[in-house]
Amino acid sequence: MRQITLATMLAAFTIAGCSVPVTSNAPQEEVAARRVALPAALPPMKAFVSSQITRPTRTNSVIAGDFLDLSFQLESGRPLPVLTRFEGPVTLRVSGDAPPYMMADLTRLLARLRIEAGINIRQVTTDTAASITLEVIPKRQLQRLVPHAACFVAPNVSSWQDYKAARGTARLDWTKLRTRTQMAVFLPGDVSPQELRDCLHEEVAQALGPVNDLYRLHDSVFNDDNFHTVLTGFDMLILRAYYAPELVSGMSRGDVAAQLPTILSRLNPAGGFGTPRMGGRSPEAWKDAIETALGKGQSATRRRTAATTAVAIARKMGWRDTRLAFSLFAYGRLHMRQNSRDAFAAFREAEAIYRANPETALHAAHMGVQLAAYALSAGQTDEAIAIVNTHIAPVKRAENAALLATLMMIKAEALDLAGRTREAQLVRLDSLGWARYGFGSNEQVGARLSEIAAISPG
Hints:
Blueprint (H helix, E strand, L loop, with lengths): L1 E2 H7 L17 H6 L26 H12 L18 E7 L3 H17 L4 E3 L8 E6 L1 H7 L3 E7 L4 H7 L16 E6 L4 H16 L24 H10 L10 H15 L16 H11 L5 H17 L5 H14 L4 H16 L5 H17 L3 H17 L3 H17 L3 H19 L2 H14 L3
Parallel strand pairs: 2-3, 2-4, 4-6
Antiparallel strand pairs: 1-5, 5-6
C-alpha cells in the first residue's frame, strides 16, 4: 500500500512541501500576492521513455536478508508463514476510466517486468478474467474506505465491489494466503500522471511479490520514505528471485533461505555467494516517532516533538545511514517556519549523508530542492543555480518529473534574478513540460510557478 500521508509529506514537489521561509525583509503580504502567468499555450507534456537499469552493489548475502524480511512480514509487523506468488503465466487487465497516459506507463512497466524481472506477464482485455485486475476509481471513493492510502493491493478479489464485500473477512487476510491466483490493485484516476505511475509501480510489484516495506532499503520502492517511485534494479532483482524455478508458493522462510544463495549468485554474480545476513531492525520507538512526525491527525507541536525524538534516537543508535538522514529531513520539514536556521542545518546534514553514497543521490536531491530554494530566497543566485545543477542528473535517472520541474523553476528564478533573462525563459519553458506530467492540471502547474516566484527577493 502506498501511504498518502508519507507521499504528501515527503515528496518535495507537493504544494505544501515546497514552502520555504522568505527573507526577513520581505513582507509576507507582498510575497503571498505574487503570481506568475502561464503561457497562453503550455508545451506538450513530457514523459520518460526509457529507464536506466542499475544493479545493486551490496553483497548477495545482504540482499538475501532483505528478501526474507520483505517476503515474510507485513508492513504491520505480522509474520507471513509461507512464500506466495503466482504459479504460471500472469495476466493483467484494466477496468474503470483509465487515462491514456496511464496506459502508456503500464505498457512500459510490463515490458520492464518481462525483461528485467523475467516474469511472464501480459495484458488482456477488460472483459477477460485475469490474475491481476487494475481498477481505476475516483480518489475520494478510494479514501472513503482506506483514508491513509494513495493506492493499494488486495488479495483474492477482482473488483472494488468484490473488495467491499470481503472487508473484515479472512478472504483479505494475507497471512491465510498459500498461493496467489487473484489480486486487485486500486488506483485513483483523478491524480497527476506521475502519482498514478508511482502507484502502478509499487502496487503491481506488491501484487507480484513483497508486501512489506523496510526503512533500511535506500535503493527500493519497498520503503516508506517514498524517495524512489519507480522500480529500481534492486526491486527487479528481488522480483526475479521471487519467480526463480527453485522457489514455489508454500515454502517456509527456512526453505527459501536455503535456496537464496544459489539463486542470487546466478542472477547477480557480482554479489558473490553467501548465506543470508539479516539487516539491522529499526527500533519500534524510532518508527513510531517517524510515523507520528509524518502522519496526519496530530498537532503540529506533537509532530515536531516526534521529529526531534526520531533524530535523537538515530543519533543514540549511532546511525550514519539513511535513517538518520531521513529523521533530519522530517525535522527540517516540520521546523522550517519555527526555526529556519535549525531546519536548514538539518537539511544540510541530511544532504551530506545522502551525497556520501552515490546510490542515494536522489535522496540528496530532495534535500537540494530545499537548500536551493533557501539560497534563492536569500538572493544567492550562483549558489541556487549550482545546487540545482548538482541534482538534475539523478532526478532524471529516477524519473521524477515533479521534482525535476521544481528544481528547474528554482533555477529559472535564479537566472532571472541574476539578469540572465533569456536563459531563464528557456529553462522555465522546459520545466513546464515536466510539470504537466508531475503536477497534472494547469492550475497546479501555475501554482507551483507562483510558489517559486514568491520566494525570490527580486
